[in-house]
């Protein structure tokens, strides 16, 4: 079967750059949106040029210029958006409505993957303020996509390993703790950690797959479904050092949201749902979903031990 032509929007971002690489690696004709608004951002430009050197085609278009966006979308079969949506970096999910409008007008797109790549927003009706904005906006996008009858796949990628594994799930740092570690409650809630390159690999695998059409694909690599305690033990075994554990009751953790900056409030809310409530693993995948490692058993995913070894 001929490989679909893929356009990545947000291709220089944290997950976007991996989607571009995975699309190229899996042999898709790969296009990357090059926005004139990048201005003097030479790092972005050089990354775009490196994609071009690897065989990608750069398409100049702006989300603020509908005609340019329609023209870009018309050149491909699949559009994947990796628009920013993490407040600790930047958050512009709503801009994707412009992409939906362009896809609607172009009328040729066989699959659209909008920027989700996290918890399943359809399971987060009850989410806490202010972090619920992430889920509300992702759901608004879903409604727009479905109302426009755009063929789609939703990717529920769970926790990007880089944000939550080497730091043993601590907030405000990406590095492993040296002496003490904060443990959420009893630390026994099951969480799912996924290597970011694997997120991209599974996403690209799904785009030409009829089994994933109009479904949610959950990334639940079995060996990476771990509790916080299990992640800590893995690090202790690797580093040869036992850390002091400080258990934080749920109420104290939630209270830490008060009088702090907005991105941290969002992060505390999300972590509460993940590490206390178990929102990544407290439901079974239904008829409207499928699990990525079962669909694509040939992918050798990265285990948490292997991932955190880099930080020794
Ligand atoms: N599961 C997890 O643990 C986890 C963690 C973090 C993020 N996420 C999710 O992953 C997705 C992507 O997040 P990310 O951290 O990879 O994003 P990011 O690197 O912060 O940004 C991605 C891209 O968004 C585009 N962008 C940002 N501001 C823009 C603007 N004003 N106008 C037009 N384009 C703009 C840029 O595209 P260009 O390349 O065109 O400049 C940027 O490279 C989000 O849905 C987020 O919620 C999940």
From TrEMBL:
Pfam families assigned: NmrA
Keywords noted in UniProt: NADP, Oxidoreductase
Biological processes per GO annotation: lignan biosynthetic process
InterPro entries, per database record: NAD(P)-bd_dom_sf, NmrA-like, NmrA-type/Isoflavone_red_sf, PCBER-like
Gene3D superfamilies noted in UniProt: NAD(P)-binding Rossmann-like Domain, UDP-galactose 4-epimerase, domain 1
Chain ranges of the NmrA-like domain: 2-308
Record-level Gene Ontology MF annotations: pinoresinol reductase activity
Recorded superkingdom: Eukaryota
UniProt similarity note: Belongs to the NmrA-type oxidoreductase family. Isoflavone reductase subfamily.
Protein name: NmrA-like domain-containing protein
The species this protein was found in: Eragrostis curvula
């Amino acid at each position: 079967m001929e490989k679909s032509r893929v356009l990545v929007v947000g291709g220089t971002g944290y997950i976007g750059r991996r989607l571009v690489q995975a699309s190229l690696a899996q042999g898709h004709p790969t296009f990357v949106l090059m926005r004139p608004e990048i201005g003097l951002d030479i790092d972005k430009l050089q990354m775009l040029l490196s994609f071009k050197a690897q065989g990608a085609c750069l398409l100049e278009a702006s989300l603020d210029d509908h005609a340019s966006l329609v023209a870009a979308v018309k050149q491909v079969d699949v559009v994947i958006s990796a628009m920013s949506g993490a407040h600790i970096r930047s958050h512009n999910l709503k801009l994707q409505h412009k992409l939906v409008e362009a896809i609607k007008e172009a009328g040729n797109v066989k699959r659209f993957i909008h920027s989700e790549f996290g918890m399943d927003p359809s399971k987060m009706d009850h989410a806490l303020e202010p972090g619920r904005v992430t889920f509300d906006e992702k759901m608004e996008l879903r409604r727009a996509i479905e109302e426009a009858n755009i063929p789609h796949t939703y990717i529920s990628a769970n926790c990007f390993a880089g944000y939550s594994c080497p730091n043993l799930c601590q907030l405000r740092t990406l590095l492993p703790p040296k002496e003490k570690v904060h443990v959420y409650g009893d630390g026994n809630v099951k969480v799912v950690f996924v290597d970011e390159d694997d997120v991209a690999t599974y996403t690209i695998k799904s785009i030409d797959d009829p089994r994933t059409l109009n479904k949610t694909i959950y990334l639940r690599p079995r060996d990476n479904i771990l509790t916080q305690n299990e992640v800590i033990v893995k690090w202790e075994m690797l580093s040869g050092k036992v850390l002091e554990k400080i258990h934080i009751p749920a109420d104290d953790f939630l209270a830490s949201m008060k009088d702090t900056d907005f991105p941290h409030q969002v992060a505390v809310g999300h972590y509460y749902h993940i590490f206390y409530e178990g929102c990544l693993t407290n439901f079974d995948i239904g008829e409207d979903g499928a699990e990525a490692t079962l669909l694509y058993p040939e992918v050798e995913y990265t285990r948490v031990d292997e991932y955190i070894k880099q930080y020794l």
